[in-house]
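Hey, resending since the last one bounced:
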Amino acid sequence: MPKEVTELLQIVPLRQVAIKLGIEKLVLKSNVLMVYLVSDQESLYYQSPQFHFMMQQIQGKNNCKIQEKNNKLMLVFKDVKNVQQAYGLLESFVGN
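The structure tokens again:
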């Protein structure tokens, strides 16, 4: 199976884990994964155990920056080469 087809098939599980994490948008471009979190900064999402667990996990990562752009919180991960790697990264942030 061509590499492009494999990547395309891996998008569905990636979106599923993104939804579990409260991620509104994902962009993987030039080995950089941009993760856009819930737009409403007053949302209860930011008080949730899932958000706090994710933030704890991110603290130990050298390849991640937290940025605010247009009043939206986003996580920027460097050196993410493909959809499979993005999936593995985000899956590690899913709490119990």
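The first helix runs from residue 3 to 9.

Sorry for the duplicate.
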